[in-house]
Amino acid sequence: MSDIDALHSAVERLLRETTVKAILPHYRNLADGDIEDKGGNDPVTIADRESEAMLSEGLSRIIPGLAMVGEEAAHADPTVLDRLSGDCWIVDPIDGTRNFAAGRPPFGILIAMASGGEAHTGWIYDCLSGRLCTAHRGKGAFIDGQKVSARSTDGTRPVAAISLVFMEEARREATKAHIAPHYDLVDIPYCAAEQYPRLALGVNDVSIFERTLAWDHAAGALWLNEAGGKAARPNGSPYRVDEVGRTGLVGAASPALWDELAERYAKLD
Known about the structure:
Structural class: alpha+beta
Low-confidence stretches: none
Shape: globular
Number of helices: 8
Strand order of the largest sheet: 3-4-5-6-7-8-9
Distance between the termini: 50 Å
Largest sheet: 7 strands, mixed
Mean pLDDT: 94
Order of helices and strands: HEEHEHEHEEEEEEHEHEHEEH
Helix content: 25-40%
């Protein structure tokens, strides 16, 4: 077994164990005191915290000494974000917490490894179905061990899932007026662990993300690019995990679909 295979196997075991022990026991079983709002309608639950603790401990055993950037740790101490410029793990203990707290899917776990501000390995785990998407830079994208290639919906018009939640009002209205009419719009899943697979599996063609936090996008952007789709900043620059506070990210099932949406996006400025 290669070092990469051994790494993927170890992380997969941890993902499944964490789901069973820290996440699913709380699913549809949250008391009032188990959910808090971090501000801006951004919930956190007891399961998020238990999951992050278990993942952090497990990942530290897999590669001792590698810096950890967890969503909840960074919320408690923003200096944790300084680690994103070096070698680190990036962990979203429950992606789709809003769904999880409401007792509905989808939700998952996102883990990435990064060096010098760029993600090079990623895992996207669906806690309910057990689907595991993995990617390693230059090695392709996989689902449950099978290599995948991104495909479009092949409909009359491209299908778009556009996240308007974190946009300022003026940009939200401009997006509705100048981009939305060119696409068949579908609801967003409020879960990057679901949205990125949809872009490669012929469910959605394009997406716009306004908020681009590392734990939400490091694994997904890498995976989509490795699948032959494209995820990049609207100006075409690569997504970097250390660009804290930068907004705007476009994902698409193919480079051609990406180019088309990015051209329209540029006219919003």
